[in-house]
Amino acid sequence: MHxxxxxxxxxxxxxxxxxxxxxxxxxxTERNFRVHMFCTGLVILGGIVFHITKGEWxxxxxIIALVLSLEMVNTAIEKIMDYLxxxxxxxxxxxxxxxxxxxxxxxxxxxxxxxFIFIPRIVEVFL
Length: 127
Ligand SMILES: Nc1ncnc2c1ncn2[C@@H]1O[C@H](COP(=O)(O)OP(=O)(O)OP(=O)(O)O)[C@@H](O)[C@H]1O
Hints:
GO molecular function, one term: metal ion binding
Order of helices and strands: HHHHH
Radius of gyration: 19 Å
Binding site for a divalent metal cation: 30, 78
Binding site for substrate: 11, 71
InterPro entries: DAGK, DAGK_sf, UDPK
Bound molecules: adenosine-5'-triphosphate
Pfam family, one: DAGK_prokar
CATH topology: Helix Hairpins
């Protein structure tokens, strides 16, 4: 079915195009992903404004990548489940809940890391 692109000499670069298309698709269809992207923008802005350290940038980039990629995996799992059946089914519900839980766990960690990095600096501004 995909023999056309697999046989092409540009298949390596086409892999990036497919990945980019996936990110665009999630951005367009998933509100939660757009919320995460908005938060990412705020965090990057905060990092610039507060001159955070190189180590803090590394930690932030890791946790941002984790949250965004888990949101994409969650969306992929939801789509697989909806492709299999759109009928109400407790097993499908449980699988989707677990995938959503994974995003939630990473988001909590992101909030903790963001708190440790930014709260002392914000407090300093007001003291
Ligand atoms: N076919 C189903 N059978 C039973 N429960 C379902 C089914 N589809 C969805 N659910 C329940 O509804 C929740 C939301 O599922 P949905 O596919 O609507 O994702 P969503 O609203 O896009 O969620 P998210 O905010 O995680 O992206 C699931 O976590 C699950 O509890």
